[in-house]
Specification:
This protein is of the alpha/beta class. A six-stranded mixed β-sheet has the order 1-6-5-2-3-4, with helices on one face. α2 packs across α3. The N and C termini lie far apart (60 Å). The relative contact order is 0.20.
């Protein structure tokens, strides 16, 4: 009798937490913790050619406009603030603009096929040229400062875990 009681108690203690976990997940009571600030892309978009040298990450402003309006200037301002805030890690980041008017301070290329969904956004691109995360661009500089902080948070995490592959 003691063996059956022990086995029943053991199974109850083992299976009850699993049942609760399954109930929490299926009923949506568990809010998965996300630590990233940007929006992950759901499809693969190769935005840039493969990086050379020490550069592992690129921050790209994607635009199809031929002139640099207030939105474009705020994007450039935010990109420059992120680059400056990186400090000694600046060597691992390049600033690019894809499409639109060519800026002398940024590396430039024409918009590739499939970049229509990324228009008027800042995009974080890995060393293989794959677009990973997007960030909104705003006309308001205070919102761009917040966006810059979000980019910097995500970029510092990525640089911390980057092994330079």
């Amino acid at each position: 009798m003691a063996k059956k009681k022990f086995l029943l108690l053991f199974l109850l203690c083992s299976l009850l937490p699993l049942a609760f976990a399954q109930a929490f997940l299926s009923l949506g009571w568990f809010g998965g913790a996300t630590t990233n600030k940007g929006q992950w892309l759901t499809e693969e978009i190769v935005l840039l050619p493969k990086a050379a040298g020490d550069v592992h990450w690129r921050l790209v402003y994607v635009s199809d406009k031929t002139d640099c309006d207030a939105l474009c200037q705020n994007a450039h301002y935010g990109m420059q603030q992120v680059y400056t805030a990186l400090g000694r890690k600046q060597q691992h980041l390049e600033l690019w603009q894809s499409g639109g008017a060519q800026d002398q301070r940024l590396l430039w290329q024409a918009n590739p096929v499939g970049a229509d969904a990324l228009q008027q956004k800042l995009v974080l691109v890995d060393l293989n040229g794959l677009a990973l995360m997007t960030y909104p661009v705003s006309d308001d500089k205070t919102h761009m400062v917040q966006t810059g902080k979000a980019i910097l948070t995500d970029l510092n995490k990525l640089l911390k875990y980057d092994r330079g592959l």
